[in-house]
Amino acid sequence: MSLPIVAILGRPNVGKSTIVNRLAETKGAIVFDEPGVTRDRTYQPAYWRDREFLVVDTGGLIFDDDTEFLPLIRQQAMAALAEASVAIFVVDGQEGPTTADEEIATWLRQQSVPVLLTVNKCESPEQGMAQAAQFWSLGLGEPYPVSGIHGNGTGDLLDEALKHLPPQEELPETSEIKVAIVGRPNVGKSSLLNAFVGENRAIVSPISGTTRDSIDTVVEREGQTYRLIDTAGIRKKKHIEYGPEFFSINRAFKAIRRADVVLMVLDALDGVTEQDQKLAGRIADEGRACIIVVNKWDAVEKDAYTIYDYGEQVKSRLQFTEWAPLIFVSAETGQRVEKILELVNTAAEQHKRRVTTSVINEVLEEAGNWHSPPTTRQGRQGRIYYGTQVSTQPPTIALFVNEAKLFNDNYRRYIERQFRESLGFTGTPIRMIWRSKKVREMERGSANRATRV
């Protein structure tokens, strides 16, 4: 990553994610009154005075407990510290110094990274200095009283943090492709992210629901920059209670909306489930480009026909995204993982592709010659006057016709197939707007009346 990094560390439930959201001026980190909500390290872009940097949220550090995710959380926090220019050690001003704070302080004193001791939950400026004074005993220098909720003291903290960041460099403009990795819990999304990056960037566990936040990771391949967004596993709505998982899934849906391309990950052993079908429908509704990634392919018993039969089953069950390319991979072994980015490049390019009006009308003329529009029992036939592309991401084509209701669903699907066969549009949905002549005349009449008035 080219921007300098500020790592946020501390024991559970001291308000690290609240501090991250305050410094980054976003709500990107999940804040919930429950310890252990944050697990992976998550990056948020931040800006202070004339400097840009990344703020990294980490899970709560506990050194004397090796149960569940705690060793993996420590590993993630240590990785964040290793790449940071400065660390912000967050403690709870209302609770005072604890044994866990002392253990973390002892560990931080052994590191080579400068540390700013930040006393959170100092909501009152008058009492804040007294609350902060208790933490001189940790031996990490001056404690900075702040309120992550109200923002008190964060300006002074950022002024001090800037002193430890390397000089600002002129960074070249890069066009990145945003890629969201989505799917049901435990299909291997985080493993796929780690396979791309080549390190344990996200915590991987056989326990479903390990990933809580949407995790952004930037990688570069052959001069192209990709922002990979790992997301929480999306379960059926009826199984979700209000709390961390509720916020996690909302983050996943937002990740789909801000992505250029969505990698929809399936478990090869489970096949396509009802939840996968619903998720495919959501991706199509959002108008995102998509690649279907069948993970754990190494665990499937295969013969010469398996991949073809399986592919047909996936396509038939995911009708909302039948236009999406399909790739069979193993995140564990790395099989075909790098080929995913080749498909991403194509899908991203097609998603923002624009076609001239003359080419669109050539396709329409050819389609009409092969299969003319349907005729009603009363002898009325649909007629397409012309078409033009009105927007991209996704490609959206407006067709101007005599009366839209004369074109049934079968013929509309036929026209879309003709566009795909003639023009490609691999990996992206196409939106078709059928506009009746009567509607256009009414709009033109309204405009004329407004002009006369």
Characterization of this structure:
A six-stranded mixed beta sheet has the order 2-3-1-4-5-6, sandwiched between helices. Strands 8-9-7-10-11-12 form a six-stranded mixed beta sheet, sandwiched between helices. It has helices spanning about 15-25, 70-80, 100-110, 125-135, 155-160, 190-195, 245-260, 275-285, 305-315, 340-350, 355-370, 410-425, 435-450; strands at about 5-10, 40-50, 50-55, 85-90, 115-120, 145, 175-185, 215-220, 225-230, 260-265, 290-295, 325-330, 385-390, 395-400, 430-435. The model is unreliable at about 30-40, about 200-215, about 240-245 and about 450-453 (pLDDT under 50). Helix 11 (about 355-370) crosses helix 12 (about 410-425). The chain is of the alpha/beta class.
What descriptive keywords fit this protein?
453 residues, Rossmann fold, GMP Synthetase, Chain A, domain 3, disordered C terminus, GTP-bd, hydrolase
Question: What is this structure's SSE topology?
Answer:
Blueprint (H helix, E strand, L loop, with lengths): L4 E5 L6 H9 L17 E7 L2 E7 L12 H13 L3 E7 L6 H11 L5 E6 L4 H9 L9 E3 L8 H9 L13 E8 L5 H9 L17 E7 L2 E7 L13 H15 L2 E7 L6 H12 L3 E7 L10 H12 L8 E3 L10 H13 L5 H14 L13 E8 L4 E6 L7 H15 L7 E6 H16 L1
Parallel strand pairs: 1-3, 1-4, 4-5, 5-6, 7-9, 7-10, 10-11, 11-12, 14-15
Antiparallel strand pairs: 2-3, 8-9, 13-14
Helix pairs in contact: 11-12
Tally the structural domains: 3
What are the low-pLDDT stretches, counting only 5+ consecutive residues below 50? 28-39, 202-213, 239-247, 449-453
Specify the number of helices: 13
Average pLDDT rating: 81
| CATH level-two architecture of the largest domain | 3-Layer(aba) Sandwich
CATH topology of the largest domain: Rossmann fold
Radius of gyration: 27 Å
Number of strands: 15
User: Which structural class matches the secondary elements?
Assistant: alpha/beta
Please give the alpha-carbon distance between the first and last residues.
58 Å
Strand line-up across the major sheet: 2-3-1-4-5-6
Q: Name the CATH superfamily classification of the largest domain.
A: P-loop containing nucleotide triphosphate hydrolases
Tell me the β content.
15-25%
The CATH class assignment of the largest domain is: Alpha Beta
Fraction of residues in helix: 25-40%
Q: What's the overall geometry?
A: elongated
Secondary-structure element pattern, one letter each: EHEEHEHEHEHEHEEHEHEHEHHEEHEH
Q: Biggest β-sheet: count, sense, barrel? A: 6 strands, mixed
Domain EngA-type G: 4-169, 177-352
Binding site for GTP 1: 10-17, 57-61, 120-123
Organism: Trichocoleus desertorum GB2-A4
Pfam families: KH_dom-like, MMR_HSR1
